[in-house]
Amino acid sequence: MYLETLTPSHLLQESLPLAGPIFDPQQWPFAIDWLPASAHLVGGSVRDALLGRETDHIDLDFVLDKAAVETAQTIAKHYRAGFVVLDAERNIARVVFDGATADFAQQVGDSLEEDLQRRDFTVNAIAYNPHTRQLFDPLNGYLDLKQGLLRMVAITNLQDDPLRLLRAYRQSAQLGFTVDAETHTYIRQFAPLLRRIAPERVHAELSYLLTSATGSTMLTQAWTDGLLQPWLPHADTLGLERVRRIDHALANICLDCPEFAAVASGWVTDQHRAAGAGRSWIKAAKIACLVSPKLEEAEPQLWELKCSRSEVQTVLTVLRWIPQLDGDRALPAEKRTQFFFFRDIGAAFPAVALMSLALEYPPDAVVSLIQLFLDLENPIAHPNPIVTGHSLTRSLQIKPGPIIGQLLEQLAIAHAEGTIANHQQALEYAQYLLDRL
Question: What is the pLDDT of residue 273?
Answer without folding.
Answer: 40
